[in-house]
């Protein structure tokens, strides 16, 4: 039991460290980001696999844990994102459709935060963080 608790603490610490690198979330206090930690879903995406397509419903924010993804619009590369960078933040703002496609350049590990998770009143600072960052040109490099 103690091993499991220590392992969970280590994983939470590593996740918090990664979130602190993300332009979109790094200004949040630990108490604001800790509640959804248990709701982050890990996804493994193979090289060349599509995370989502332009026009898909905006249902989650993604954070690159390892490797890289490319953001595409009509098959033109708009950006390449790597470790600690987020994409899909528009899903947390509007729930609208995706404005670009995202594809893994290499085998990639992602964390996904569902829009449903942040839509509750328990985490209004995460939602307001994405609103503020979306208005700032120096935040996340793309809007998907």
What this model shows, in words?
This protein has 144 residues and is of the alpha+beta class. It has a single domain, classed as Jelly Rolls (Sandwich). Helix content is 31%, strand content 27%. A hairpin with a 2-residue loop joins strand 4 and strand 5. It is globular, with a radius of gyration of 15 Å. The relative contact order is 0.23.
Topology:
Blueprint: H1 2-21, H2 30-33, E1 41-45, E2 50-52, E3 60-66, E4 69-73, E5 76-81, E6 86-87, H3 90-93, E7 101-104, E8 108-114, H4 115-119, H5 124-135
Antiparallel strand pairs: 1-8, 2-7, 3-6, 3-8, 4-5, 4-7
Task: Summarize the model shown.
With 144 residues, the chain is an alpha+beta fold. It is built from five helices and eight strands, in the order ααββββββαββαα. It has one domain (2-135): Jelly Rolls (Sandwich).
**Radius of gyration, Cα only, in angstroms?**
15 Å
Residue-averaged pLDDT, rounded? Answer: 77
Helix content: 25-40%
Helix/sheet category: alpha+beta
Percent of residues in beta strands: 25-35%
Distance between the termini: 41 Å
User: What is the approximate shape?
Assistant: globular
Fold-level CATH name: Jelly Rolls
Low-confidence stretches: 120-124, 133-143
Give the topology string: H per helix, E per strand: HHEEEEEEHEEHH
Name given to the CATH architecture: Sandwich
CATH top-level class: Mainly Beta
């Amino acid at each position: 039991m103690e091993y499991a608790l220590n392992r969970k603490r280590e994983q939470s610490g590593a996740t918090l460290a990664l979130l602190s690198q993300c332009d979109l979330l790094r200004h949040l206090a630990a108490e604001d980001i800790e509640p959804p930690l248990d709701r982050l879903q890990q996804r493994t995406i193979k090289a060349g696999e599509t995370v989502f397509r332009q026009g898909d419903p905006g249902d989650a924010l993604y954070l690159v844990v390892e490797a890289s993804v490319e953001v595409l619009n009509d098959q033109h590369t708009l950006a390449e994102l790597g470790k600690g960078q987020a994409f899909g933040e528009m899903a947390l703002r509007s729930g609208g459709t995706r404005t670009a496609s995202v594809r893994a350049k290499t085998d990639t590990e992602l964390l996904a935060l569902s829009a449903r998770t942040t839509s509750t009143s328990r985490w209004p600072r995460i939602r307001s963080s994405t609103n503020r960052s979306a208005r700032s040109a120096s935040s996340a490099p793309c809007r998907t």
